[in-house]
Design brief:
The protein has helices spanning 2-19, 23-26, 81-84, 103-112, 122-125, 143-152, 168-181, 195-205, 244-254, 351-354, 356-368, 377-395; strands at residues 31-32, 43-44, 69-74, 93-99, 118-119, 133-136, 156-159, 185-187, 212-220, 258-267, 284-293, 298-304, 312-319, 322-324, 328-330, 401-402. By secondary structure, the chain is an alpha/beta fold. The chain starts with a helix and ends in a 6-residue tail after the last strand.
């Protein structure tokens, strides 16, 4: 544990060195992540503000079981995601153990989730035979490895985005591990429960859009200095290594995939996005990808860290029978229910547009009902791997490249 703490301190020093920040400047970089734990007062990381949402009395939540799933929560870093999704408040969940590599963080996670049992690492927690499912909120480079480790010990897996970090080999390993296990795997892509994307998916599944001709997704998150991260993994991150918030505006609507890509990257003027200032040797602060879709249509997906202005996740789609630009315009007159699912009593909708609680409830319900979760391994990898190949294309000046396909 002392070694781990030393690694954290070393990472912190490297962060300061790479970004040119002194201690006083870093004091201005204290972010809070509302929706889990005790927020710091200064700033809120984009997208994590809780949505103040009143329950829809005409559409009450209905329990699918009276059973409680025994869950372990792992990771309580800058964004405090293990607590932010509200597992501890779900009537069908018992949080039986928590873990973080930093003892102080682990203790705080236990406190905010009202849990009495802690483990010093994920590797120890997943050996607990009393745990059925694990929420993995660790560093992005660890997501694939940690998911495979949890699956090895028979745990259903919920995990933050992205599914894998820049590695096609890891994607194949994770895909095979999930298939072999027969367990539930769900990536918590927040865009999938945004009001607009949820409506798009409902209308698409009802046939109101037809074949999608064109779709757009945008994830703009201006970061003149990087958000702090475990071992500095966010410093200079290639934008298309974190593509799921935008790619969901096609893959999350249709359950389809991108089959090939041409992507262009724009060299950045931001210091931590200079090749000599980040571990990725990355110069791109913005990467714009043009994808061919599995329906034969086209998608433009943008990821950007270095453009001041309105930020967030947005999307638009056009189909042969209708389009959705903030509202539906098309041939279908009898639209399906477009109101997002209700939440259990005591569960908040949470951050990222009110998606947190709904993602958690979807994962819990998929286990209780023994059905496919909304963002299963195939959907998760089709959202993630397309970005990895897009970055490869950008490094080759926009060369068209084939994208691996994942199906269940």
């Amino acid at each position: 544990m002392n070694k781990e703490k030393n690694n954290q301190l070393s990472s912190r020093r490297n962060f300061l060195k790479l970004t040119g920040l002194g201690a006083a400047a870093l004091g201005l970089q204290q972010f809070s992540c509302k929706g889990g734990g005790k927020p710091a007062p200064e700033h809120t990381i984009q997208g994590l503000e809780n949505v103040d949402e009143k329950p829809d009395a005409s559409k009450p939540w209905v329990a699918v079981s009276d059973r409680k799933i025994r869950v372990g929560l792992v990771g309580y870093g800058v964004c405090k995601f293990s607590a932010a999704f509200g597992f501890q408040n779900h009537p069908n969940v018992e949080v039986v153990a928590v873990s973080d590599l930093i003892p102080e963080r682990c203790a705080e996670l236990a406190k905010v989730t009202r849990c009495n049992k802690t483990y010093p690492s994920l590797e120890e927690l997943v050996k607990d035979k009393n745990i059925e499912a694990v929420m993995i909120s660790t560093d992005a480079p660890g997501h694939a490895r940690h998911s495979i480790e949890a699956l090895k010990y028979g745990k259903h897996v919920a995990v933050n985005v992205p599914a894998v970090h820049g590695s096609l080999e890891d994607a194949d390993k994770l895909y095979e591990a999930v298939k072999k296990s027969g367990l539930k795997y769900m990536m918590f892509e927040t865009s999938c429960f945004h009001e607009d994307l949820y409506a798009m998916r409902q209308i698409y599944n009802a046939g109101g859009l037809g074949k999608l001709i064109y779709s757009e997704g945008e994830y703009y998150h201006y970061m003149p200095t990087p958000i702090d991260s475990y071992k500095g993994w966010r410093i200079g991150l290639p934008p298309q290594y974190y593509p799921t918030h935008s790619n969901a505006y096609y893959v999350g609507v249709t359950d389809g995939s991108f089959t090939e890509v041409s992507c262009l990257g724009i060299p950045s003027i931001v210091d931590h996005l200079k090749p000599g200032n980040n571990p990725y040797r990355n110069s791109f602060g913005t990467e714009i990808a043009l994808f061919r879709t599995s329906e034969g249509g086209m998608s433009r997906m943008a990821c950007s860290w270095d453009s001041p202005g309105d930020s967030g996740e947005k999307g638009r789609i056009r189909g042969q029978k209708g389009s959705f630009y903030g509202k539906y315009q098309g041939l279908e007159k009898n639209l399906p229910d477009l109101v997002r699912p209700s939440l259990p009593p005591g569960v908040e909708s949470g951050g990222h547009g009110g998606s947190h609680g709904r993602l958690m409830d979807e994962f819990v319900s998929s286990i209780l009902q023994d059905r496919k979760p909304l963002i299963d391994i195939a959907v998760a990898l089709n959202m993630t791997v397309s970005g990895i190949v897009a970055h490869q294309s950008a490094l080759r000046g926009g060369e068209w490249m084939k994208i691996p396909q994942y199906k269940l």
